[in-house]
Amino acid sequence: MKQVRQALILLIVSLTALVVASACKRAERPLASSEARIGQVAQGDNGSVEPTLVTLPADSHLLAVAPKGADAPVDGAALFVANCSACHQVTGDGVPGAFPPLNGSAYVVSDNTERLVSIMLHGLQGPITVKGTTYAGMMTPFAAVLNDKEVAAVATYIRSSWTNSASAVAPETVEKMRVKWGQRGAFTISELGEEPGA
Ligand code: HEC
User: Fold this and answer.
1) Contact 187 CB / ligand 1 (< 6 Å)
2) Most buried among 55, 59, 146, 176, using CB within 10 Å?
3) Considering only CA atoms, which residue is closest to atom 40 of ligand 1?
4) pTM above 0.85, yes or no
């Protein structure tokens, strides 16, 4: 009787080892480039929480929301809505008397993209005339919020949206301005140079 029990226990132990080993092997299978592996937490029958790893098939909907690699393109429109539209509005028309327009602004579509990027990195204060109206507000800096690619994507978006149709801004321009200015406070427009006819 004792021997039977021992044999049974041995059988159970080796079976368990086999199952675990094959599960590990499955988890180690190299991923195809179109697949992803995610952690999943399931609730056991007795209320216990059991973490598992599942491999998502290439056509999984979940893959679409998985974090993208560093090379993924950044969405200038979405970044504009998240960071700029509270003041400049989604229409780009700003708020009369408070926030200047980006739509039709000579500062936005100017060939001087270094000035545009500088305003975005460090902010702007003091009087500025845009489309014939003078504003004297305070724009918050984005140097610590957006990286070079993101600043370039937002700049490109505002230069090519609404009635604006100006060329794209390269991340290299943003990098150059970051190095040039280092850490500093908000600009006044006279430091950066006023746009004639703005
Ligand atoms: C907190 C409100 C606020 C936010 C957020 C903001 N701005 Fe501004 N922005 C201003 C104000 C106010 C001015 C005018 C500052 C002055 O009077 O000197 C301005 C000026 C500007 C100008 C120069 C004037 C013009 O209208 O062309 C540009 C370009 C600009 N902002 C772009 C942006 C972009 C791009 C973002 C998002 C990354 C952004 N701003 C986020 C308030 C804001």
Assistant:
1) no
2) 146
3) 84
4) no
**pLDDT tens for each residue of 123-173:** 999 999 999 999 999 999 999 999 999 999 999 999 999 999 999 999 999
Distances (CA, A) of 67 to 23, 34, 56, 137, 186: 26, 13, 14, 37, 34
At 80-123, the pLDDT tens digits run 999 999 999 999 999 999 999 999 999 999 999 999 999 999 99
Residues forming beta bridges with residue 134, ordered by sequence position: 129
Mutating to test ligand 1, I would choose from 124, 139, 163, 164 the residue with most ligand atoms within 8 A of its C-beta, which is: 139
CB 148 within 8 A of CB 178: yes
Closest C-alpha to ligand 1, atom 14: 137
